[in-house]
Amino acid sequence: MSKKKTETDNTEPVRETPQPEPKEKHTPSHKHTEDKTAELEKKLAEQKDAFLRLAAEYDNYRKRSLREKEETYCNAKANILKELLPVIDNLERAQLKDGEQGAADYAKGVEMILAQFAQVLEKLGIECFGCEGDPFDPHCHEAVLHVEDSKLGENVVASVFSKGYKIGDKVIRSASVSVAN
């Protein structure tokens, strides 16, 4: 026989000793952790609620701003139209009485309407520009024709085809002019 012993001969089966199942201990530190967790969950719920309220408030603000912007735009158009309605009324009156009036009376009526219209524009802060002899400014004049005129200097408005209009520095319509070279 051999003197060598095999490992399997010398080993006994290993028995596992059952470990006792951990019991939930309500130690003070465990209770403290549960309290802390509950407190954090409550704070999280409060923060979530605050966030949702803020998001809803912002959405309402955005909608209200758009509504106010549209309302302001509509009011501005209505205010301008209110100022123009008397001019339109006078034009309609002149049109109805065209056959009854003489040419001189009709021309005088048109002059009065134009004066009334100029007053409305002035009241609205709209300035009319583009007169003969003004220096040419490409920012507010549109040169549709160049003419040679020795009486006028260079880059001077020789004649006006249609006046320009602006509010403050904002040009609403450029004046169509002929420019002397």
Structure characterization notes:
The protein is an alpha+beta fold. The chain folds into 2 domains: 35-124, Hemagglutinin Ectodomain, Chain B, CATH 3.90.20.20; 127-181, Roll (Nucleotide Exchange Factor Grpe, Chain A, domain 2). 52% of the residues lie in helices and 18% in strands. The protein has 3 helices and 6 strands; from the N terminus they run αααββββββ. The chain has helices at residues 7-10, 28-96, 103-123; strands at 126-129, 141-147, 156-162, 164-167, 170-173, 175-180. A hairpin with a 2-residue loop joins strand 4 and strand 5. Helix 2 (28-96) packs antiparallel against helix 3 (103-123). The radius of gyration is 45 Å and the shape is elongated. It starts with 6 loop residues before the first helix and ends with a strand. The model has no long low-confidence stretch (mean pLDDT 84).
Q: Radius of gyration in whole Å, from Cα? A: 45 Å
**Through-space gap between termini:** 133 Å
> How much helicity do the residues have?
40-55%
H/E series? HHHEEEEEE
| Alpha plus pi helix count | 3
Q: What is the global morphology? A: elongated
Q: Please identify which CATH superfamily of the largest domain we are dealing with.
A: GrpE nucleotide exchange factor, coiled-coil domain
Q: Could you name the CATH topology of the largest domain?
A: Hemagglutinin Ectodomain, Chain B
What is the makeup of the main sheet? 3 strands, antiparallel
**Strand tally, please?**
6
Can you tell me the number of structural domains? 2
